[in-house]
Amino acid sequence: MLHEKDGQRIKQQLLCPAEDKVVTRAEIVKGYEVGEDQYVVVTDEELAELEPKATRMIEIQDFVKVAEIDLVYFEHSYFMVPNEQSGKAYGLLLGAMKDSERIGIGKVVMRGKEYLTAIRPYVDTIVMETMHFA
Question: Model-level pTM?
Fold first, then answer.
């Protein structure tokens, strides 16, 4: 951001209104408001513990009929392929979903965020769809 008049960069200052003084970033902590002007301090370590742990697993919680989910809830598609050890289980899951005309609904953690997902057959592969929450 530049000052329009002379083209100089604008400085941002962090100000404590209670003391009316500028504070450094080292003096700043994170907090959560629990009431009017009442905060609980939260450390970086506590926030890190709250992040969902990334795994290579998709936790399927239920199977539903394909028609039960409106396509508007699908966000991004990811084609899934089995690794060497899981080829048989992959084939069984794919076949079962095709035969029953059902898709799996579950959760997966990617890039430090938990997503609602739909696992569905597509031709001869499985597609994982991240989904919008209703």
Answer: 0.61
Structure tokens at 117: 């997902």
- Amino acid residing at 82: P
90 phi, psi to nearest 5 deg: -60, -50
Cα–Cα distances in angstroms (integers) from residue 70 to residues 48, 66, 76, 107, 116, in the given order: 35, 9, 14, 18, 14
pLDDT > 70: what percent of the chain?
100
Which domains, ranges and CATH numbers included, belong to the chain? 14-50 (no CATH), 59-131 (2.40.290.10)
Residue 58 φ/ψ, nearest 5 degrees: -115, 120
Tokens for 80? 């899934």
